[in-house]
Amino acid sequence: MSGSRTTVELDALQSQLQRRIGALDSVVIAFSGGVDSSLVAALSARALGERALAVTAVSAALATGELAAARAVARSIPVAHETITTDELASPDYRRNDRFRCFHCKRELYSQLSGLATARGYRALLSGANGDDAGDWRPGLRAAADHRVIHPLLEAGVDKPTVRALAERLELPCADKPASPCLASRIPYGVPVERAALERIDRAERAAKALGYRVLRVRHHGALGRLALDAAELRCVLAEPARRAALEQAIRSAGYARAEIDERPFRSGSLNDPPPGL
Protein backbone atom coordinates (compact mmCIF):
# COMPACT_ATOMS: atom_id res chain seq x y z
CA MET A 1 0.00 0.00 0.00
CA SER A 2 1.26 3.48 -0.81
CA GLY A 3 -1.24 5.48 1.25
CA SER A 4 -2.10 8.78 -0.41
CA ARG A 5 1.26 9.07 -2.22
CA THR A 6 1.76 8.01 -5.80
CA THR A 7 4.70 5.90 -6.95
CA VAL A 8 6.33 8.98 -8.44
CA GLU A 9 5.91 10.86 -5.16
CA LEU A 10 7.39 7.98 -3.19
CA ASP A 11 10.36 7.89 -5.59
CA ALA A 12 10.95 11.59 -5.08
CA LEU A 13 10.59 11.32 -1.30
CA GLN A 14 13.01 8.42 -1.06
CA SER A 15 15.56 10.35 -3.11
CA GLN A 16 15.05 13.45 -0.95
CA LEU A 17 15.58 11.50 2.26
CA GLN A 18 18.67 9.72 0.93
CA ARG A 19 20.21 13.03 -0.17
CA ARG A 20 19.55 14.49 3.29
CA ILE A 21 21.18 11.54 5.02
CA GLY A 22 24.02 11.30 2.52
CA ALA A 23 25.00 14.89 3.22
CA LEU A 24 25.71 13.93 6.85
CA ASP A 25 28.80 11.90 5.84
CA SER A 26 28.43 9.14 8.47
CA VAL A 27 25.66 8.25 10.91
CA VAL A 28 24.65 6.17 13.92
CA ILE A 29 20.96 5.23 13.91
CA ALA A 30 19.01 4.61 17.12
CA PHE A 31 17.58 1.32 15.86
CA SER A 32 14.75 -0.55 17.58
CA GLY A 33 13.87 -2.73 14.61
CA GLY A 34 10.46 -1.08 14.34
CA VAL A 35 9.33 0.23 10.98
CA ASP A 36 10.36 3.87 11.60
CA SER A 37 13.97 3.29 12.63
CA SER A 38 14.29 0.46 10.13
CA LEU A 39 13.33 2.79 7.30
CA VAL A 40 15.91 5.33 8.45
CA ALA A 41 18.53 2.55 8.66
CA ALA A 42 17.67 1.31 5.17
CA LEU A 43 17.86 4.81 3.68
CA SER A 44 21.14 5.40 5.52
CA ALA A 45 22.63 2.17 4.21
CA ARG A 46 21.69 3.16 0.66
CA ALA A 47 23.05 6.65 1.07
CA LEU A 48 26.21 5.93 3.07
CA GLY A 49 26.99 2.22 2.87
CA GLU A 50 29.53 1.21 5.52
CA ARG A 51 29.39 4.70 7.05
CA ALA A 52 25.98 3.87 8.53
CA LEU A 53 25.73 1.97 11.81
CA ALA A 54 22.46 0.83 13.41
CA VAL A 55 22.60 0.42 17.19
CA THR A 56 19.97 -1.30 19.33
CA ALA A 57 19.73 -0.58 23.05
CA VAL A 58 19.10 -3.61 25.26
CA SER A 59 17.49 -3.02 28.64
CA ALA A 60 14.95 -4.45 31.05
CA ALA A 61 12.20 -2.58 29.17
CA LEU A 62 12.88 -4.34 25.85
CA ALA A 63 10.24 -6.96 25.11
CA THR A 64 11.34 -10.54 24.48
CA GLY A 65 11.94 -11.16 20.79
CA GLU A 66 12.53 -7.53 19.84
CA LEU A 67 16.32 -7.84 19.72
CA ALA A 68 16.16 -10.95 17.52
CA ALA A 69 13.70 -9.15 15.22
CA ALA A 70 15.97 -6.11 15.01
CA ARG A 71 18.93 -8.29 14.08
CA ALA A 72 16.91 -9.96 11.34
CA VAL A 73 15.86 -6.60 9.88
CA ALA A 74 19.45 -5.32 9.98
CA ARG A 75 20.60 -8.40 8.07
CA SER A 76 17.89 -7.95 5.47
CA ILE A 77 18.72 -4.29 4.76
CA PRO A 78 21.74 -4.96 5.09
CA VAL A 79 23.29 -2.47 7.52
CA ALA A 80 26.03 -2.76 10.13
CA HIS A 81 24.40 -3.48 13.48
CA GLU A 82 25.58 -3.42 17.08
CA THR A 83 24.01 -3.40 20.53
CA ILE A 84 24.58 -1.39 23.67
CA THR A 85 23.21 -1.95 27.16
CA THR A 86 21.28 0.86 28.82
CA ASP A 87 20.22 0.95 32.45
CA GLU A 88 17.29 3.32 32.81
CA LEU A 89 16.27 1.59 36.03
CA ALA A 90 19.38 2.99 37.70
CA SER A 91 17.82 6.45 37.45
CA PRO A 92 15.38 7.49 40.22
CA ASP A 93 13.87 9.99 37.77
CA TYR A 94 13.00 7.18 35.36
CA ARG A 95 11.71 4.82 38.06
CA ARG A 96 9.46 7.56 39.44
CA ASN A 97 7.49 7.29 36.18
CA ASP A 98 6.06 10.77 35.82
CA ARG A 99 5.04 12.22 32.47
CA PHE A 100 8.71 12.80 31.62
CA ARG A 101 9.69 9.14 31.91
CA CYS A 102 10.51 8.99 28.20
CA PHE A 103 12.79 11.99 28.55
CA HIS A 104 14.88 10.19 31.16
CA CYS A 105 14.91 7.01 29.07
CA LYS A 106 15.98 8.78 25.89
CA ARG A 107 18.55 10.85 27.76
CA GLU A 108 20.24 7.60 28.79
CA LEU A 109 19.99 6.23 25.25
CA TYR A 110 21.23 9.30 23.40
CA SER A 111 24.00 9.94 25.89
CA GLN A 112 25.42 6.50 25.19
CA LEU A 113 24.89 6.72 21.43
CA SER A 114 26.47 10.17 21.28
CA GLY A 115 29.50 8.86 23.15
CA LEU A 116 29.77 5.92 20.78
CA ALA A 117 29.45 8.16 17.72
CA THR A 118 32.11 10.57 18.97
CA ALA A 119 34.53 7.80 19.91
CA ARG A 120 34.12 6.05 16.55
CA GLY A 121 34.14 9.15 14.36
CA TYR A 122 30.51 9.15 13.16
CA ARG A 123 29.29 12.64 12.33
CA ALA A 124 25.57 12.46 13.15
CA LEU A 125 23.02 10.61 15.27
CA LEU A 126 19.65 9.75 13.70
CA SER A 127 16.29 8.63 15.04
CA GLY A 128 13.15 7.22 13.44
CA ALA A 129 10.77 9.90 14.75
CA ASN A 130 8.18 10.62 12.07
CA GLY A 131 5.79 13.42 11.23
CA ASP A 132 2.99 12.01 13.40
CA ASP A 133 5.21 12.38 16.47
CA ALA A 134 5.12 16.18 16.19
CA GLY A 135 1.51 16.26 17.39
CA ASP A 136 1.88 13.79 20.26
CA TRP A 137 3.30 13.97 23.78
CA ARG A 138 6.94 13.06 23.09
CA PRO A 139 9.28 14.23 25.86
CA GLY A 140 11.91 11.97 24.30
CA LEU A 141 12.24 14.55 21.52
CA ARG A 142 13.48 17.03 24.09
CA ALA A 143 16.24 14.61 25.11
CA ALA A 144 17.03 14.17 21.42
CA ALA A 145 17.38 17.92 20.98
CA ASP A 146 19.84 18.03 23.89
CA HIS A 147 22.05 15.60 21.95
CA ARG A 148 21.49 17.17 18.51
CA VAL A 149 19.76 14.08 17.18
CA ILE A 150 18.51 14.44 13.60
CA HIS A 151 15.06 13.11 12.63
CA PRO A 152 14.97 12.80 8.81
CA LEU A 153 11.38 11.52 8.65
CA LEU A 154 10.07 14.17 11.02
CA GLU A 155 11.93 16.91 9.15
CA ALA A 156 10.30 15.82 5.89
CA GLY A 157 6.84 15.53 7.45
CA VAL A 158 6.64 11.80 6.64
CA ASP A 159 3.60 10.32 8.42
CA LYS A 160 3.17 6.71 9.54
CA PRO A 161 1.25 5.48 6.46
CA THR A 162 4.00 6.88 4.23
CA VAL A 163 6.67 5.31 6.43
CA ARG A 164 5.01 1.94 5.88
CA ALA A 165 4.64 2.59 2.16
CA LEU A 166 8.35 3.37 1.83
CA ALA A 167 9.28 0.38 3.99
CA GLU A 168 7.19 -1.87 1.76
CA ARG A 169 8.79 -0.31 -1.29
CA LEU A 170 12.23 -1.16 0.11
CA GLU A 171 11.01 -4.67 0.97
CA LEU A 172 11.70 -4.35 4.67
CA PRO A 173 10.34 -7.37 6.58
CA CYS A 174 8.95 -5.08 9.29
CA ALA A 175 6.85 -2.95 6.91
CA ASP A 176 3.60 -4.08 8.54
CA LYS A 177 4.97 -4.76 12.03
CA PRO A 178 2.75 -3.36 14.82
CA ALA A 179 4.33 -0.71 17.00
CA SER A 180 6.12 -2.16 20.04
CA PRO A 181 7.10 0.59 22.47
CA CYS A 182 9.04 -0.20 25.63
CA LEU A 183 7.39 -2.30 28.30
CA ALA A 184 7.34 0.65 30.72
CA SER A 185 4.71 2.29 28.51
CA ARG A 186 2.18 -0.21 29.94
CA ILE A 187 2.58 1.18 33.48
CA PRO A 188 0.40 4.18 34.43
CA TYR A 189 2.18 7.42 35.20
CA GLY A 190 2.84 7.72 38.92
CA VAL A 191 3.28 3.98 39.46
CA PRO A 192 7.01 3.27 39.93
CA VAL A 193 8.71 1.28 37.19
CA GLU A 194 10.18 -1.88 38.69
CA ARG A 195 12.00 -4.75 37.01
CA ALA A 196 9.51 -7.30 38.36
CA ALA A 197 6.60 -5.40 36.79
CA LEU A 198 8.37 -5.22 33.43
CA GLU A 199 9.04 -8.94 33.52
CA ARG A 200 5.41 -9.72 34.38
CA ILE A 201 4.12 -7.55 31.52
CA ASP A 202 6.52 -9.26 29.14
CA ARG A 203 5.38 -12.75 30.22
CA ALA A 204 1.72 -11.79 29.92
CA GLU A 205 2.08 -10.35 26.43
CA ARG A 206 4.04 -13.37 25.26
CA ALA A 207 1.34 -15.65 26.64
CA ALA A 208 -1.38 -13.71 24.78
CA LYS A 209 0.61 -13.69 21.54
CA ALA A 210 1.13 -17.44 21.85
CA LEU A 211 -2.64 -17.76 21.46
CA GLY A 212 -2.41 -16.08 18.06
CA TYR A 213 -3.16 -12.44 18.87
CA ARG A 214 -0.96 -9.84 17.20
CA VAL A 215 -1.82 -6.27 18.19
CA LEU A 216 -2.10 -6.03 21.97
CA ARG A 217 -0.92 -4.43 25.18
CA VAL A 218 -1.12 -5.68 28.75
CA ARG A 219 -1.78 -2.62 30.91
CA HIS A 220 -0.25 -3.05 34.35
CA HIS A 221 -2.42 -2.11 37.33
CA GLY A 222 -0.64 -3.85 40.19
CA ALA A 223 -2.33 -7.21 40.74
CA LEU A 224 -4.55 -6.62 37.71
CA GLY A 225 -3.44 -7.14 34.13
CA ARG A 226 -5.83 -5.55 31.64
CA LEU A 227 -5.43 -6.74 28.04
CA ALA A 228 -6.19 -4.36 25.18
CA LEU A 229 -6.73 -5.81 21.69
CA ASP A 230 -7.31 -4.21 18.32
CA ALA A 231 -10.91 -3.83 17.20
CA ALA A 232 -11.10 -6.87 14.93
CA GLU A 233 -9.60 -9.32 17.41
CA LEU A 234 -11.57 -7.79 20.28
CA ARG A 235 -14.89 -8.41 18.52
CA CYS A 236 -14.06 -12.09 18.18
CA VAL A 237 -13.00 -12.40 21.80
CA LEU A 238 -16.09 -10.66 23.16
CA ALA A 239 -18.32 -12.87 21.02
CA GLU A 240 -16.72 -16.13 22.18
CA PRO A 241 -16.53 -16.73 25.95
CA ALA A 242 -14.00 -19.55 25.50
CA ARG A 243 -11.54 -17.19 23.82
CA ARG A 244 -12.00 -14.64 26.55
CA ALA A 245 -11.43 -17.22 29.25
CA ALA A 246 -8.27 -18.49 27.54
CA LEU A 247 -6.83 -15.00 27.31
CA GLU A 248 -7.65 -14.19 30.93
CA GLN A 249 -5.96 -17.42 32.00
CA ALA A 250 -2.91 -16.52 29.91
CA ILE A 251 -2.62 -13.18 31.72
CA ARG A 252 -2.98 -14.83 35.14
CA SER A 253 -0.33 -17.39 34.19
CA ALA A 254 2.17 -14.54 33.95
CA GLY A 255 1.69 -13.71 37.62
CA TYR A 256 -1.33 -11.41 37.73
CA ALA A 257 -3.87 -12.24 40.44
CA ARG A 258 -6.63 -10.76 38.26
CA ALA A 259 -7.05 -10.46 34.52
CA GLU A 260 -9.51 -8.50 32.40
CA ILE A 261 -10.12 -7.89 28.72
CA ASP A 262 -10.57 -4.19 28.03
CA GLU A 263 -13.85 -3.88 26.12
CA ARG A 264 -12.57 -0.75 24.39
CA PRO A 265 -10.40 -1.37 21.29
CA PHE A 266 -6.67 -0.86 21.67
CA ARG A 267 -5.56 2.73 21.25
CA SER A 268 -1.98 3.85 21.65
CA GLY A 269 -1.65 6.22 24.61
CA SER A 270 -4.93 5.17 26.19
CA LEU A 271 -3.21 4.38 29.47
CA ASN A 272 -3.46 8.07 30.18
CA ASP A 273 -7.23 7.62 30.42
CA PRO A 274 -8.73 6.59 33.78
CA PRO A 275 -9.53 2.87 33.46
CA PRO A 276 -13.00 1.72 34.50
CA GLY A 277 -13.50 -0.22 37.69
CA LEU A 278 -10.33 0.87 39.46
Describe the structure in your own words.
- This protein has about 280 residues and is an alpha/beta fold.
- It folds into 2 domains: about 5-170, Rossmann fold (3-Layer(aba) Sandwich), CATH 3.40.50; about 195-270, GMP Synthetase, Chain A, domain 3 (2-Layer Sandwich).
- The protein contains 11 helices and 7 strands.
- It has helices at about 5-20, 35-50, 65-75, 90-95, 100-120, 140-145, 150-155, 160-170, 195-210, 230-240, 240-255; strands spanning about 25-30, 50-60, 80-85, 125, 215-220, 225-230, 260.
- The strands form 2 sheets. The protein has a 4-stranded parallel beta sheet with strand order 3-2-1-4, with helices on both faces. It has a 3-stranded mixed beta sheet with strand order 5-6-7.
- It is globular, with a radius of gyration of 19 Å.
Descriptive labels:
single chain, 278 residues, GMP Synthetase, Chain A, domain 3, 4-stranded parallel sheet, 3-stranded mixed sheet, 11 helices, 7 strands, disordered C terminus
Blueprint (SSEs and pairs):
Elements: H1 7-22, E1 27-30, H2 35-48, E2 52-58, H3 66-76, E3 80-85, H4 92-96, H5 101-120, E4 124-126, H6 139-146, H7 152-155, H8 160-169, H9 195-210, E5 216-221, E6 224-229, H10 231-239, H11 241-253, E7 258-261
Parallel strand pairs: 1-2, 1-4, 2-3, 6-7
Antiparallel strand pairs: 5-6
